[in-house]
Specification:
Elements: E1 30-31, H1 36-43, H2 50-84, H3 92-104, E2 126-127, H4 136-144, E3 150-151, E4 155-156, H5 157-161, H6 165-169, E5 173-174, E6 201-206, H7 210-223, E7 230-234, H8 239-242, H9 254-267, E8 273-280, H10 288-297, H11 300-305, E9 314-321, H12 332-352, E10 370-374, H13 380-390, E11 394-397, H14 399-403, H15 407-413, H16 421-439, H17 443-460, H18 488-493, H19 498-509, E12 512-516, E13 521-525, E14 532-535, H20 536-553, H21 557-570
Parallel strand pairs: 2-11, 3-6, 4-6, 6-7, 7-8, 8-9, 9-10, 10-11
Antiparallel strand pairs: 1-5, 12-13, 13-14
Bound molecules: flavin mononucleotide.
């Protein structure tokens, strides 16, 4: 300024929707891309994980000692019951043993850092982690339709810490997933929750050993800046995963699971740790209630050592056993029992403050544990019923979203949305566009988009339009008799024949995709022909004419329309 004082100048940044751009967003709008250097460091074991190493070493020594002590104590108690009557009637012997244990217990080398607060409520329907299906384009589509929380596909810990490219690709998310979930402050009991700092996207990992889970968590917390939570998969039923001791196998190793969650919480920095479980591994032996108790209050060893609760910020329970896989209905009564246990814990929060089980303000991400139910949610009616009757904080939706991604729209609006066939086709087209943006519009990207589109269509065909249903609400387990749509396209979209899915793909994808570069647009034609590329600036009209002719030969109207739009957009 003239008088010599400095003037505040607004630095220039691209403003879209009134917000500064997110740091670390790549050109195609993805986040959590990690550098080649980081991957190479991981591959060559140059990437340091000091916290995980320290904590694992502590688990190895202290854990063994505690287990041994717990075993000895149990043996002692058994011999007392057998009648040698050494126990003092006032229980002072037990208390002394506890004090003794605590004195011998060595503190963990790390305490959890202050965690970012998160929130789950009726206004945050959650899209479940979905291997293969829950890819970035699909999640982006669901976010556009109202999903408030999303998860990555399950990534295995070991390949992540070995820097495997394909596994790291699962951590990529779209920038729309880095926006805050919706939030109604009147329902929130979490202290100092700042919605503006919250995001939608969380990572899910699977690991079978504490060192793997801890290393993976530390690496993720360092390399992926945009993670809402890190979720540990304890529900995967697949043999390949189960046999290694990961996924649902952890349900039968609850001591190990508790150690893993505690350790993850200690090394995850500010990222809260959550857990997704099933009811148990066997149909007739559900043990999730015991596990939930352990995860919120801490197990026997923790009680002995005075460690307190585990620090899991949220638990999601899928109301089925591993043995059950996806057969029969999810058991919402059981889910409701677990919800009641957690509610009791959350309400007891203050009373627990006087006991050794008091939650550490830092390790407990919210001062409370959130509880989500999962299984067979297929309409806003199911969603509301579960929130009201099972008293869960929110509901996680998996197949319901694959079959009907606009279930999130229905939940928002509190009513059925009868999407017409052309509206549904538009969603498919949107998916293709997102796919090409994510995976590229070269031959590889086109191939990947095609493959994942077919994967999705293999679920989407199961949608029966609400407008032709005989009774409501529709159920996920229903297998309706053959039906005819209100027009040919609707019938085609409901076909269970894979050849029809390919037809749908042609209708939408046949089009051409265009990628604008600085001055020109590159047109790629990908019917079932090899990719052909021509540059607009050189021979726009000839290319378009040729493409139009080909489309006409194939009686593909969409194709022509799309090309025309494309030409208009490219100027
Ligand atoms: C295709 C598919 C892939 C899945 N992948 C995962 C996964 O990677 N991680 C996970 O925790 N659960 C996974 N699940 C289980 C779901 O998240 C969910 O727990 C289960 O489908 C029950 O919910 P629903 O009745 O709403 O489908 C998958 C389910 C399906 C159908």
């Amino acid at each position: 300024m003239e008088d010599g004082r400095k003037e505040l100048v607004l630095l220039e940044f691209k403003i879209e929707s009134g917000k500064p751009p997110l740091p670390g967003v790549s050109e195609n709008g993805t986040i959590n891309e990690i550098s080649t250097q980081a991957k190479s460091d991981l591959m060559k074991r140059r990437f340091k994980t000091p916290k995980a190493d320290k904590y694992t070493a502590w688990i190895d020594t202290n854990g063994k000692e505690l287990e041994e002590q717990t075993r000895r104590d149990a043996q002692m108690r058994r011999s007392e019951v057998d009648g040698d009557g050494l126990e003092a009637p006032d229980g002072s012997g037990e208390k002394a043993a506890l004090e003794d244990n605590r004195a011998r217990f060595t503190e963990p080398p790390l305490q959890p850092s202050e965690k970012r607060r998160i929130y789950f409520g009726p206004e945050t329907p959650v899209l479940a982690p979905l291997t293969t299906q829950g890819n970035l384009p699909f999640r982006r589509l669901c976010v556009g339709l109202g999903a408030q929380v999303t998860y990555s596909e399950m990534a295995m810990g070991l390949p992540l810490i070995q820097g495997q490219k394909s596994e790291w690709a699962l951590m990529r998310a779209h920038e729309s997933e880095a926006t805050p979930p919706s939030f109604n402050s009147s329902d929130c009991v979490v202290k100092v929750y700042d919605n503006a700092k919250d995001i939608k996207f969380g990572a899910q990992i699977a690991a079978n050993k504490p060192w793997q889970a801890l290393k993976t968590t530390e690496v993720l917390s360092q390399l992926c800046p945009h993670l809402r939570v890190i979720d540990l998969n304890c529900g995967c039923p697949i043999d390949l995963v189960f046999r290694t001791g990961a996924g649902s196998a952890l349900l039968d190793s609850q001591g190990k699971l508790e150690k893993i969650v505690r350790g993850m919480n200690a090394v995850s920095g500010e990222i809260p740790v959550t857990v997704k479980i099933r009811m148990g591994t066997k149909d007739n032996k559900p043990n999730a209630l015991k596990l939930v108790d352990r995860l919120v209050y801490g197990g026997e060893e923790a009680l002995r050592s005075g460690e307190g609760p585990c620090g899991a910020a949220a638990i999601t329970l899928h109301g089925r056993s591993r043995q059950q896989r996806y057969t029969k209905n999810a058991d919402w009564n059981y889910i409701s029992d677990c919800a009641a246990l957690i509610k009791e814990y959350n309400e007891k929060g203050n009373d627990l403050a006087d006991t050794v089980r008091e939650a550490d303000g830092r390790s407990q991400a919210n001062g409370k544990v959130y509880f989500l139910g999962n299984g067979d949610c297929y309409s806003h009616v199911d969603y509301q019923t579960h929130i009201e009757e099972a008293k869960v904080d929110s509901v996680m939706i998996a197949r319901g979203a694959l079959i009907k991604p606009w279930i999130f729209e229905e939940i928002q609006q509190g009513q059925y949305v009868d999407k017409s066939a052309s509206e549904r086709l538009r969603l498919v087209e949107q998916y293709v566009r997102y796919g090409l943006e994510t995976w590229g519009s070269d031959e590889m990207g086109v191939g990947t988009t095609r493959r994942f589109l077919l994967e999705w269509l293999s679920f989407a065909y199961r949608y029966v339009p609400v407008g032709i249903l005989e009774h409501l609400p529709p159920k996920l387990q229903d297998r309706p008799p053959a039906w005819r749509g209100r027009n040919d396209l609707e019938t085609l979209l409901g076909s269970d024949n894979y050849k029809d899915w390919i037809k749908i793909r042609y209708i939408v994808q046949a089009c051409a995709c265009w990628v604008s570069t600085t001055n020109c647009a590159v047109v790629k034609c990908f019917l079932d022909q090899p990719t052909r590329t021509s540059t607009f600036s050189q021979s726009t009209s000839r290319t378009v004419m040729r493409l139009k002719r080909r489309a006409k030969r194939r009686r593909c109207i969409c194709y022509i329309l799309d090309i025309t739009t494309m030409v208009r957009q490219c100027g």
